[in-house]
Structure to design on (277 residues):
């Protein structure tokens, strides 16, 4: 069975006989067509889209709204996210985009170089930090890749949209539990400060790259941010630690995993069919 223990708590599934009251989803990049289909599904089922600020209000029981809620975020800072803004405007969808700041300068993310060389990058996530860095630096010299990250100008323009909240996703997108203490501080603080300098606005939210974290990372996030997002695939609960906010990844691979769950979770089965994924 594909179902991994951390994918969903069975307790949650039992509660989900009907549509969840709140759902927190995230993407990296997706087509306008798929984004619109997803938005329209939530609109059809009477969900209201909320910003991260409103999500925090919900966590503190200050959000005065009794209907269904949906929070959407994007990790990494892909320039293709710009294409989705007109849909955010059209359907009044706030989004939070977690940006990796080194890619604003270099144009790309480390895994793109690994993919160019090996096709897959999963193995790299387990490397010790020094080995990881050495290999990535040599791959960067070897491959030229089309820019996939925002430029600084593009990010400034994107952030002007009132539906957009920009947040931090570290400087280099390392696997945080693998990095030494001083590098962890650099990754957490310098990404925040650079985004604040670029945008002239406070950066208050964080998402853990690859969802990788331990006690040390949670403590650091708590020092610098109001809340932090994980990749724990479950629904938000008001008892969550807001440094460990769960999110459901709507990706092709995830849907395949969910197939096992769909038998007992009808609304999402319909979602799956609707998106044709
Ligand atoms: Zn990421």
């Amino acid at each position: 069975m594909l179902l991994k223990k951390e994918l969903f708590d069975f307790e949650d599934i039992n509660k989900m006989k009907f549509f969840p009251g709140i759902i927190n989803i995230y993407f990296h990049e997706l087509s306008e067509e798929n984004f619109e289909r997803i938005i329209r599904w939530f609109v059809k089922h009477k969900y209201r889209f909320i910003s991260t600020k409103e999500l925090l209000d919900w966590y503190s029981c200050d959000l005065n709204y009794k209907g269904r809620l949906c929070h959407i975020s994007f990790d990494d800072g892909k320039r293709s996210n710009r294409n989705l803004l007109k849909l955010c405007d059209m359907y009044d969808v706030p989004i939070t985009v977690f940006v990796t700041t080194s890619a604003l300068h270099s144009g790309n993310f480390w895994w793109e170089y690994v993919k160019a060389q090996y096709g897959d990058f999963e193995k790299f996530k387990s490397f010790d930090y020094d080995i990881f860095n050495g290999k990535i630096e040599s791959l960067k010299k070897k491959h030229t890749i089309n820019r996939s990250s925002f430029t600084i100008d593009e990010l400034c323009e994107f952030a002007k949209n009132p539906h957009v909240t920009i947040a931090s996703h570290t400087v280099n997108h390392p696997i945080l539990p693998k990095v030494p203490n001083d590098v962890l501080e650099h990754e957490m603080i310098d990404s925040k400060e650079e985004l604040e300098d670029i945008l002239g606005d406070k950066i208050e939210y964080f998402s853990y790259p690859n969802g990788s974290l331990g006690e040390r990372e949670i403590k650091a996030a708590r020092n610098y941010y109001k809340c932090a997002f994980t990749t724990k695939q479950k629904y938000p609960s008001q008892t969550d630690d807001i440094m460990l906010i769960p999110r459901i990844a709507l990706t092709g691979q995830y849907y395949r995993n969910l197939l096992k769950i769909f038998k007992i979770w009808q609304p999402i089965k319909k979602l799956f069919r609707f998106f044709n994924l």
Remarks:
- The pocket of zinc ion is lined by residues 75-76, 169, 173, 209 (CB under 6 Å).
